[in-house]
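User: Fold this, then the next.

Assistant: Folding the first:
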Amino acid sequence: MSYNVGVIGLGAMGSGMARSLRRHGHAVRVFDVRAEVAQAFAAEGGIACSSLTELAQQCQVIVSVVVNAAQTEAVLFGEGGCAAAMARGSVWVMCSTVDPNWSMALEARLATLGILYIDAPISGGAAKAASGEMTMMTAGVPAAYAAVGPLLDAMAAKVYRLGDRAGAGSKVKIINQLLAGVHIAAAAEAMALGLREGVDAAALYEVITHSAGNSWMFENRMAHVLAGDYTPLSAVDIFVKDLGLVLDVARATKFPLPLSSTAHQMFMQASSAGFAREDDSAVIKIFPGIDLPQKP
């Protein structure tokens, strides 16, 4: 069965998700503030929409892959936003990392308009999004899942159904981001110490990735450092935002997060030093007196 599905936000993750949906035979309409990105997708066989209203009027399901809650609010309820044009019974799939309480409130707000909602943060990186092998952490009412059908499975290898109301998906994503941010910060600290002590960077990487101290983030992000390539797949400011959300959630119940707090400060320092839009592995640049590998 083919669906008319819209994807809003063709960044590192959204573009791959849109291509995965199209590979599975769905009619995929896209919108991005960068019109040339949407047109490039249309050249591959998709459909570029010139406005959010146009997309919303023609899609049964809309997958939102924008950066944060503020952008989600804008594409839904801002001038020319989707909410006013979506048909009753259509589904909004929200893939951003947001405060779980905000996600729960959005579900209720959309319900008053007859729009179903799935809280569906994502993880796995651009490569897995492009191959349809990422992870989705979802929650929503049964009717929303029934309406979405196979679309979630077309975008992700792992679709976890974590609750019958919004919020549970975002809570799990917040915890994932806690670990991801702390692991990147720890990996950068370890590599920086190795460089400061005169250890060959490539040798250190080889040993650690075959030892108990390895982590997925060390293996993935320190490869960027070795290449001297800080082209952003996930930028420093993403973790300024996401670890900030982690701390906000914990602060509400006075739950201590000492490692998350330290990692957040490291990303804040990197951002304020001018590396905000670089790859998140650029957090290593906050350490003084180290000679980082340079891009050939």
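Now the next one, as you asked:
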Amino acid sequence: MKYLQTVGLVSICLLLALGRSASAASSADILGQSPDSHWRTVDPQHTYVMQLTDKRMVLIELAPAFAPRHAAQIAALVKSGWYDGLAIVRVNDNYVTQWGDAEGTKPLPDGLSRTLPAEFELPRVPADLPFNAVPGRDAYAPEAGFAQGWPVGRQSARGPAWLAHCYGMVGAGRDSAPDSGGAGELYAVIGHSPRHLDRNITVVGRVLLGMEYLAALPRGDDAMGFYATPAQRVPILSARLLSQLPDAGRPVVQVLRTDSSSYARWLEARRNRTDSWFVRPAGAIDLCNAMPPVRLR
């Protein structure tokens, strides 16, 4: 089994009960001891593989619970093969890698619109997604934590909630008008988390595997990191939902459940590092530093 570190607490009481035993174990030990029930398998209908050149593959999970219209449209475009032959058009250092229809001229399948209503936030975290708070203050939200593995800021338990721009999160590009975005231009965060974008752009998902391919691309030399010529762009050979792949070739990807005791222990171990290299454990952690681990079965 392969664990991939990518970038909520069950309860404060649970952490206090775990006490010193939680921080004594290493992060790797905790993941190795975690039962299968503490991991969720990503939905093949809402997860797709984008294949670049040289067998570089990027796996992206969509977030229909937070951006239902965008997630549905992206899934429909992937299923139709619309992204095939498009390209990565922008790599802005310490910011984003962007891909899609740069000229905005490729026809969309029947019934799909080039722009969608903004889905910047929800009235509240969906009732079927437990919210697990990360301890400490957040600079951009009164409360911050995770809902089914998604990094979330929220006003309160009854107030608006939104996905956070952490490393590896995927958003839908837009122009000045809030409703000018869609599924034609997507980006992944490749630098320091630009949380100032929260609630200003629709966040549609997260890169689970293959971030190294998006983050290591040559930077664009034109304004905002765009490639100056089409020849510099990185082709997208294909994009396919996991549900479109044959069973024998379909990867089984799992994310550590953020409402599990394993995640609570893992988070506490990362907040208070006890291995000998650390002179002063931080005793704190940032939301985007607490993204739940991913594993490939």
